[in-house]
């Protein structure tokens, strides 16, 4: 799987790990998965910050300047191209050391604990939803 898959799954995984599961073993698997995903997300955030500081226009305090629409103001066209390429390469990083967790409907305590369809789509790279 790619780092971008973990970035997309991070928030839905947090919500899923707050749901009630019927098995302690499954809860532990989910906790281990969440910790592994969070470590990769923290890595991404640190690397993204380095790229921002390298290519963004900075204010007098050294903070990146943002445009009114929330986008980052980059120094010039070359910086924009380099920044986008660096971030894209970072997001395309292969992550090999995270094993997906298998969950089925029976693993959830009640039907209200089941993930939504959108959550299932976001989690499909790290959770094997079984029938």
Please name the defining characteristics of this protein.
mainly alpha; elongated; 131 residues
Describe the structure.
The protein is mostly helical. It has one domain. It is built from four helices and two strands. A two-stranded parallel sheet has the order 1-2. Helix 1 packs across helix 4 (117-123). The mean pLDDT is 96.
Give the number of helices.
4
| Helix and strand run | HHHEHE
| Largest sheet data | 2 strands, parallel
Residue-averaged pLDDT:
96
**What is the helix content?**
40-55%
Radius of gyration (CA) equals 18 Å
Roughly how many Å apart are the termini? 23 Å
Strand residue percentage: 5-15%
The global form is elongated
User: Which spans have pLDDT < 50 for at least 5 consecutive residues?
Assistant: none
Class based on secondary structure composition and strand pairing:
mainly alpha
Number of domains: 1
* Sheet with most strands: strand arrangement: 1-2
Q: Strand tally, please? A: 2
Question: Layout of helices and strands, plus pairs?
Answer:
Elements: H1 3-17, H2 24-55, H3 77-91, E1 101-104, H4 117-123, E2 127-130
Parallel strand pairs: 1-2
Helix pairs in contact: 1-2, 1-4, 2-3
